[in-house]
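Late entry, written up from scratch paper. The run itself happened at the end of the previous shift, but nothing got recorded in the book at the time, so transcribing now.
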Amino acid sequence: MKGTSKIQSALSLATIFLLLATINVRAEVSALDATGKRVSLKSTAQRIISLSPHGTEMLFAAGAGEYVLGVGSFSDYPEAAKKIQQVGSYDRLDMEAIIALSPDLIVAWKSGSPGQQVERLERLGFTIFYSNPIELDDIANEVESLAVLAGTSTRITNVMRYWRDELVKLKMRYSGKDKVRAFYQIWHQPLMTVNGKHLISKVMELCGAENVFAGLPSLVPRLDIEAVLAANPELIVASGSVDGRPEWLDGWKQWPQLLAVQKNNISHSPPDVMQRAGPRILEGARHMCELVEQARNRRVDKN
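Output as recorded:
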């Protein structure tokens, strides 16, 4: 009888622990999004839609990839994201598909998702988390917030600590060195760059580069050739829309008066790791720092 009583007590305790675990999973969760709004869910998100490629990467980095049911176009990283149903693009959402998936959380890009359609989804009762990294730290903060909402925080603690530590190492190694005046080219027709408030410019600053167009008012300004010639950057870094070096990049060689041409400092940066505000920007930062350091080392007179 005593043995039976002990078994029953053990089973009772196991049942209690199981119930407590279930209550914990189903407990209300909340986190701040990029707008400062507190996003609250009655239970952790199990059906998630991402409306941007960087949002998709953040969710996978947050350990919540298995809960993502729909993604925006160009969500091609990690490999598993390619198999997820696409529910729209930067200019138009497939509202019918999104509603049919019945998400309990939608991750929208504040400055990139179709605003009116996202607001309509919110009016329909869907919970919206706005992503909009402006500083490099914002990326890690948003990943951690998404992990809270998905109940996956314990999976990523060491990962995000490593991510932050690596950025600090890059800053300590490069940001205090002699500045390299640089021009980051997003596209060639029209000729486009970034100003000092853009995340890409923050990466340049981290690496000890001075964005020659930092002072322009527009986040993504359009330029003419004359503006670049007048700025005379020591380094030109271009991205394009594919990982391979764009053919138009070497067009700058027709302007031999440019310091970047004279020093052979015309380089390519893979767009996915620089122009997506996701965790892989750490890779982009490492590459950018190498390019800036290379330009610095090519100076004849370093004094």
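Residues 20-25 have pLDDT under 50 and may be disordered.
(Scratch paper discarded after transcription.)
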